[in-house]
Each structure stands twice: as structure tokens, then as C-alpha cells.
Design goal:
- By secondary structure, this protein is an alpha/beta fold.
- The longest helix has 25 residues, at 129-153.
- Strands 3-2-1-4-5 form a five-stranded mixed β-sheet.
- The chain has six helices and five strands; from the N terminus they run αααβββαβααβ.
- Strand 2 and strand 3 (113-121) form a beta hairpin.
- It is globular and about 55 Å long.
- The N and C termini lie close together (7 Å).
- The mean pLDDT is 90.
Amino acid sequence: MIKTTPLHQNDSTPFHDPMLYRQLIGRLLYLTNTRPDISFATQQLSQFMATPTINHYKAITRVLRYLKGSPSQGLFYPTSSTVQLKGFIDSDWATCPDTRKSVSGYCMFLGDSLVSWKSKKQTTVSRSSSEAEYRALGLASCEVQWLTYLLLDFQVPFIQPALLYCDSNSARYIAANSVFHERTKHIEIDCHVARERLQNKLYHLLPIHTTYQVADIFTKAL
């Protein structure tokens, strides 16, 4: 996608065949099961299925040209690696020009194998970048909990706790230190599930430089 021109509603003439646009989106949604590199683009384009415009169709054809030019891209699963859950969390604050909602993104690795990823627009407007990052952390912590239950059900031995990497200092401080909660009462209660699971030692929350933030690809066009 083009970084400098974010898509929004009614940005050009309506597309003459909305059904074709919806069919292409449906195919891209299935393809994200093996191509995480198009997750963000598909998430962005799927917002306009009701009333797609010419610019939206041009953007989706750009994704199709990218796929045609990179048929060898995919997921690689090594035969031997450390069996430990590792996750990367990121968000892009107020990225939607129509609603000013933020985008959450995460990716989960089992050892060196990518096993789960998501790019999703948040349900409410965040009043700060810290809140947006913290909501993304809450979403990722739920995924870690689910993957942990799954491995236990399959009786797969793995290293605990999981490791979560977040490039937001404020989000990590809020999750680790209850003193910060007085400044963040506007954050919904369910977001504090991240702190509860951190205290229960489900995962370790570690810093990472933005340059090495793998989840960046799920929150913005790169």
C-alpha cells in the first residue's frame, strides 16, 4: 500500500461493480491464512465493502500485483527450534481518517515458527498513543492465553512463561505498575486483563526497539 495516501470513505467516484470488489476481498481474506504480509492491506480494504470507490479498487489491484510478483513468499517452519511462545505487539494511533480509531497488530511465534497474527482496528477511539498500545497488549495477552491452553490440551511440552515484546515504554509501565492506573481511568476495565495475566506470570513483558518490532507490518503500510 502507499504510505502517504491513507484510504477513507467517499474519497473518489463510487466503483461501478461493488460485487467484484467484495469477491476480491473474500479471496484476500482466505489468503491471509498463509500470507501474513497482506494482513494489514486486507484489513484496511475490507472496511469499504459497503460502498467501494475507484481509489479503493486501485488499491486492491495494487495488492493483487504484489501477490503476482511475489509467488514464492510464504511461511517457513523449521524442523527444530525452542518450543516457547514469543509475541510482538504494536499499534498505530488514530490511523483511521474517518473514525480516528487505532489499529492493533500482533504476531505470535512458537519457537522460530510464526503461528498466529492479527491486524485489527480497535473498537473504540483511544485518547492517547499509550492507550492504543495498551489495548493492543490486552488483545495479544488473550492470544497468549489461548495458545497456552491449546499447547496444554495437546500435551506439548513448552517453556513457560511466554515472552511479549512491546516498543511502548508507557504501556509496559502501566501493565507493570498499579500506581499508573490513576492516570488511566479512562481505559476500559477489560483492557487491564493484560496486567492481571502479567501478574499471574503467564508472560514476561520485554522492551524492544521499534527497528526490530516485527509486528510493525500489521499496523501500517511499509
